Amino acid sequence: MMQTYDVHTLPSNDNVNAYAFSIELAGRWFVSKGAMIAYYGNVNFDGVAAWASRDGFIASRFSSPIYIQDWVVAEGQGKVIVADRGFDVQSFDLEAGNLTLRANNLLGFETGLELKQSIVPGFVTLIGTGKFLASSNGPVIFVEPPFRADPEALLGWADCPSPSHHYDAQWMSASLGAMLQGMFGRESGEERQFDFTGEGTILMQSSETLREDPALMRLIESQTSLLSTQQAGILGQRLVARAQQQ
């Protein structure tokens, strides 16, 4: 039987279904641009960058310049429904802790949490106490280290050191041989992994399919300024060659 909701029957701070979450808004939330699909009540949505210029508290919550333009402040009273392309949406509660998450899968978080840019490109870290929402391609799988993960299926990690890169030994041998012959190493798609050690919890998606991350593109582009003109030219040629192979 089809269920019809109104402002009174919509869930409060709970899932509407596996793919949508209803925030009971009484103040402010940070919401990823494009995540809001509907709302009830008196709610304003303003960019975090605009807010940060007039409210030091908002600025103090974001220590990640490359992501600030991808977020809005939802302020007011009502119910805000957020979703992400039909992906699974789940809420998590962080209590005086920290959790690193793929930036593109973070949909919203309470202002009690602070967002920092992770040293791992494409990921952000939430610190403090509060609720946050994340999407995943399929149900989330929780695992403990020691563990190696496909980077594209990795959703995040909590209470454990940042991962290091691990490369398949056979691929490394082939790549080193190719380098000696002035050729590019060939990739199978599985040779690069993230290696987790220590204690903690790793969050995995049920699929490797990723959403394109515009902030990651901006980060990489900004770092190419460190290259010389010759190095930038070589990088450009390699990217063109890679695109032509696909």
UniProtKB/TrEMBL annotation:
Gene3D superfamilies: Mitochondrial biogenesis AIM24. It holds the Pfam family AIM24. The lineage of its organism: Bacteria, Bacillati, Actinomycetota, Actinomycetes, Propionibacteriales. InterPro entries: AIM24 (IPR002838), AIM24_sf (IPR036983), Trp_RNA-bd_attenuator-like_dom (IPR016031). This is Uncharacterized protein (AIM24 family). PANTHER family: ALTERED INHERITANCE OF MITOCHONDRIA PROTEIN 24, MITOCHONDRIAL.
